Amino acid sequence: MQERRTDPDPLDELLDHLTRSTSLSRGEAHRVVLDVLAFYDETTEEWVRRRHRELQAKGLTNPAIFARISEELPHRAVAPPRLSLRQLRRLVYG
């Protein structure tokens, strides 16, 4: 019988830290990490469109929305290149 080799999860160190420093089980910590990674996997275009919808739902006008998005973009985990207000509008409306 051949021994089956399993590769370690690349997140093992982070999962170990989370289970030691929180009350999360390993499975819960793994799900939280995957959720966070998925959140930051969003492209700039997806993020701009989602943020526009969120701010529009709060009743903000487009000038206020695009100004706010422009201010928020540089603070993302991996900041995209600086986009003009015109480029932001084109991402939303094509």
Which SSEs are present, and which pair or pack?
Layout (H helix, E strand, L loop, with lengths): L11 H10 L4 H15 L3 H14 L4 H11 L12 H9 L1
State the low-pLDDT regions, or none.
Answer: none
Work out the radius of gyration. 19 Å
Along the chain, the helix and strand elements come as: HHHHH
Q: Helical segment tally?
A: 5
Task: Report, as a whole number of angstroms, the end-to-end distance.
Answer: 59 Å
Q: How much β-strand is present in the residues?
A: under 5%
Mean of the pLDDT scores? 89
**How would you describe the shape?**
elongated
Report the count of strand segments: 0
How does the helix and strand content classify structurally?
A: mainly alpha
For the biggest sheet, the summary is: none
Share of helix, binned = 55-70%
Name the descriptors.
single chain, 94 residues, mainly alpha, 0% strand, elongated
Report on the structure:
The protein is an all-alpha fold and 94 residues long. Helix content is 63%, strand content 0%. It contains five helices and no strands. The chain has helices at residues 12-21, 26-40, 44-57, 62-72, 85-93. Helix 1 (12-21) packs across helix 2 and helix 3 (44-57) crosses helix 4. The longest helix has 15 residues, at 26-40. The model has no long low-confidence stretch (mean pLDDT 89).
